[in-house]
Amino acid sequence: MKPSTKKIIIYAILGLMILIAFSYFTRDAEKDSTEGVVSAELMPDYSNSRYKEIYLAGGCFWGVQAYFDRMLGVVYTNVGYANGESEDTDYYSIGETGHAETLYVVYDPDILSLEELLGYFYGIIEPTILNRQGNDIGTQYRTGIYYVEPLDLETIKSVTEQEQKKYNEPIVTEIEELQNYVLAEEYHQDYLVKNPGGYCHVDLSNIPRERPAVYKNAYPKPSDSEIRSKLTSLQYSITQENATETPFQNPYWNNEDHGLYVDIVTGEPLFLSLDKFDSGSGWPSFTRPVQREVLTYHRDESLGMARIEVRSRSGDSHLGHVFDDGPVEEGGLRYCINSGALRFIHEDDLEKEGYGGFLIYFR
């Protein structure tokens, strides 16, 4: 065989291999796109809500978020980069742009005061050390309190003055009005929830006012035969086949009792009655889940509409959808949920049903 012929055969084989690899890649990409998983849930907007906002820089934001996110009175958190020299940055640029790793905290002042919140914050940082917390060194790890409400400044200064009495060295924690805030990459959000045992410079063993944790492995999904045996045909169609029940003709749309709503398939806690409201839709509606991580979000373009489907984390049960037309004072979201995907546990029955930890919400 001539050398030129061998080259042609080799090139042909290489071309075929590339074509096959490309076809597999394309199928995988198409599969991923049709699975419809949304990288981040619909973001609430608390700027005009009844809640208060504060931004706290306490070193690596993974541990700071895990600490405050488990605290009763904290409504919502995310992590990002604050008060840098530019309006845009990312994790690999903050050393140059001067941003600090920061936790955005939304809290309910009727449950948790700013004084208490800042006291807990000072309790997990080393406020006399500049540009370092734990093992992390750099300007991005400086400590700071960044406020959006000018009236908060007096409280921040007062708490800091009280904290200064505990130290011989001066407190170097920045106290500034928020200048800018860039939301951090998705993999940083709730990092220690996604990566239990990951690096953390904050002691999470004794969180004050700690809420009950909801762990996925505590609520395993039963087999399909078990699910069929425990659910009605309508409940099965809703949770397993993405069906929708009739509005105003379901058990919980107008339920006003206090208690906990759990996944009817696994028993995983999903929603509190305290966050339920009458949306006029004829389905149970909530402003937030009991914890962000108990839900998953998926793009849904069925019925000619672009919506975000909500499913349970452990059981992968279809629950309903989330919309941005909820009460502004509660963050603007509306979780529209099928009653058939839920089981309601009355406040009086939480202890005997094994959900006694959730009584903290109703005391």
Verbal overview:
The chain has 363 residues and is an alpha+beta fold. Helix content is 24%, strand content 22%. It has 8 helices and 17 strands. The strands form 4 sheets. Strands 7-6-1-3-2-8 form a 6-stranded mixed β-sheet, with helices on one face. The longest helix is centred in the N-terminal third of the chain and has 33 residues. The radius of gyration is 25 Å and the shape is elongated. The termini are far apart. The N terminus is likely disordered.
Mean pLDDT: 90
Give the biggest beta sheet.
Answer: 6 strands, mixed
Tally of distinct domains: 2
CATH level-3 fold name of the largest domain: Metal Binding Protein, Guanine Nucleotide Exchange Factor, Chain A
Q: Give, in spatial order, the strands making up the sheet with the most strands.
A: 7-6-1-3-2-8
Roughly how many Å is the radius of gyration? 25 Å
Strand content: 15-25%
Content-based structural category: alpha+beta
Named at the architecture level, the CATH assignment of the largest domain is Beta Complex
| Helicity range | 10-25%
Count of helical regions: 8
**Global shape:** elongated
H/E element sequence: HEHEHEHEEEHEEHHHEEEEEEEEE
User: What is the fourth-level CATH superfamily of the largest domain?
Assistant: Peptide methionine sulfoxide reductase
Instruction: Name the poorly predicted regions.
Output: 1-40
**What distance lies between the first and last C-alpha atoms, to the nearest angstrom?**
88 Å
CATH uppermost class of the largest domain: Mainly Beta
The total of beta strands comes to 17
